[in-house]
Amino acid sequence: MALELADNPLRLVYAAIWTMLEAKTEFTGLVLTGNRIKYTNTVGNRAPDQDVATSVGPRVRVAHTGFIPHLFRVTGGSSLVIRWEIEIASGDQRFATELDVTWAIFRAMTGWATHIQTLTWKGETFARLYRPQKDDAEIMDVNVNRGIKGWSSLWTGEAELWFSTTQLASGT
């Protein structure tokens, strides 16, 4: 049985990253709804390429790539660093599309204090740090671009989450 969204801070952060991106009209104007690959389907697993808009345009997905847990990091507190990536696949050999989406994502990240830092779990805010780290771009990545020669870009970053160790250990 899956937890409710509000009961899982990791799902809250994932949803907030998307909310942060989609709050910028620059981003939503460049990336069609069907090209925003979200792994939130409640019906079952779906392939990332399923339901992708068929028109020309960049495709963006957000995924977590790992965690660094720090139980009992300080007296009474534990932290969890979630590593994430935002992947852009342009399907275009010209720079413009990839650069435009990259700029829109960079601008959207300024909303972290509104969309991520205000998240709460058990009545307490928990997101203390949201740190984009790098953006790697290349002209051809068959795994990202589905065999189409074009620019792809991969943002990586992390969010540092802090919790009361007592609340983590409680049964509720």
Description:
By secondary structure, the protein is an alpha+beta fold. The chain has a single domain, classed as 2-Layer Sandwich (STM4215-like). The chain has 6 helices and 7 strands. The chain starts with 8 loop residues before the first helix and ends with a helix.
Q: Largest sheet at a glance?
A: 5 strands, mixed
CATH topology: STM4215-like
Strand line-up in the sheet with most strands: 1-2-3-7-6
Structural class: alpha+beta
Q: What is the H-and-E element order?
A: HHEEEHHEEEHEH
From the alpha carbons, calculate the radius of gyration and give it in angstroms.
17 Å
Helix percentage: 25-40%
Question: What's the structural blueprint in terms of helices and strands?
Answer:
Elements (H helix, E strand, L loop, with lengths): L8 H14 L2 H6 L5 E2 L21 E16 L2 E13 L5 H14 L3 H4 L4 E2 L2 E2 L1 E12 L3 H4 L6 E13 H5 L3
Parallel strand pairs: 1-2
Antiparallel strand pairs: 2-3, 3-7, 4-5, 6-7
What's this, in brief?
This protein is of the alpha+beta class and 172 residues long.
Overview features:
172 residues; 7 strands; five-stranded mixed sheet; two-stranded antiparallel sheet; alpha+beta; STM4215-like
